[in-house]
Amino acid sequence: MASLEAQVAALTAQVAELTAREEIRELLCRYGFAADTGSAREWSQTYAPDGVYDGLETISGRASFAHAIDNPAGVHKRDIESKGSLHTSGPVMIRVRGDEAWAEGPALVWVRDEHSSWRPFSLSYNHWDLRRRAGRWAVTRRLSRPVAPGLAGEVFTAWRTAG
Amino acid sequence: MASLEAQVAALTAQVAELTAREEIRELLCRYGFAADTGSAREWSQTYAPDGVYDGLETISGRASFAHAIDNPAGVHKRDIESKGSLHTSGPVMIRVRGDEAWAEGPALVWVRDEHSSWRPFSLSYNHWDLRRRAGRWAVTRRLSRPVAPGLAGEVFTAWRTAG
Amino acid sequence: MASLEAQVAALTAQVAELTAREEIRELLCRYGFAADTGSAREWSQTYAPDGVYDGLETISGRASFAHAIDNPAGVHKRDIESKGSLHTSGPVMIRVRGDEAWAEGPALVWVRDEHSSWRPFSLSYNHWDLRRRAGRWAVTRRLSRPVAPGLAGEVFTAWRTAG
Lengths: 163, 163, 163
Prior knowledge:
3 copies of one chain form a homotrimer. Chain A is of the alpha+beta class and 163 residues long. Chain A contains 5 helices and 7 strands; from the N terminus they run ααββααβββββα. Chain A has helices at residues 4-36, 40-44, 62-70, 75-80, 152-155; strands at 47-54, 58-60, 85-89, 93-97, 100-112, 118-133, 136-146. In chain A, strands 1, 2, 3, 4, 5, 6 and 7 form a 7-stranded mixed β-sheet that branches. The two termini of chain A are 26 Å apart. Chains B and C meet through helix 1 and strand 3 of B and helix 1, strand 5 and strand 6 of C.
């Protein structure tokens, strides 16, 4: 039996890992809440200052992220938020190493359609790289591709290395 | 380095928080299982005795909750359960303070359609207030609005205060 | 107040439970990643060597599981993976007892349709029995039925026993 000190040290590491995963799932929730409520600043802050979105377009820099939400002529305001939208993600697999982490899993954006029902606006494969600074996680890079033939394996890569 | 006693006290608080969140996610699972299996009593017990559902209609009191599931002429039996349904929720953000908590996130009810495929019967923004009594969490109030333009910000409010 | 030793023992048990649940949710993620990337071996290994899938068909034995993914004339290659697919599951309720566990909840397979939108290929009620060997969880039996009238109660059974 390990010493009490060693047991407490092991527990501390395990609880830190569980807590970090919870925080990362929360970050993805926050991302959705900010998008659906049109909160441009909060949405931009889910990315690190040097964070990059690599999807149908490439976005980098917090001003550009905020503009993607705020721009009255942009896709978000015109085709998503103004229709009534719901951004969700997960379930995700997560691995944390110190202050860096990755997550992989789906993201789904629902919009209300003209019949007052709902349809997927986008459904995607995603890999997120994340970094913790001053106790807060943020996305440093999100690779996102639509669910389509042959693309899953381009995005879902890290899960193979997670023993 | 904190004393071993202080480390154990800190771990105890962190594990209690993680466990409470897990219990609350389970409560939402139980809510779905009870709805889809037509279990009126179990469904009503996911609400506190003074619990309130504030949605398309307002429901309060466990007898009324049970009736919402049991009533052969009601929407649940007629348009949902009898078609083949699946109630899901999440991902949710959760904050626990002692024996009270809140959760925010989506809920989605699928029903089988006439082509043996499935469509969303309802898709909603939700804020749940919860309370723990005798070790069991229950919903004291659920605010629920359909995904539609401008409603996300009326329901998703607490996430902004979660530092 | 319990002794420090007793507190650490209780924490160890709680953290082991939380960690096991996390591992089981990861196993379900891995199942989806393997399916969508067409990784037959990894997919077959989410089942125990004596694992059984009891769904629209019955599958048992790892060679048969791998064949279900690899077979060019099979449903998976022809109607799912080649269209562009996304396998998801959850939220799930989980109970762990030593090296055995169960999980209950939905599974949803999305496929891209001919209009470059997405539709559910299958939506199901599921009960998974699981076993841990050499630190790894695997499915010993999955009972799966499509979301349809009257079937929820045939599959969602264990949740009632989870106090």
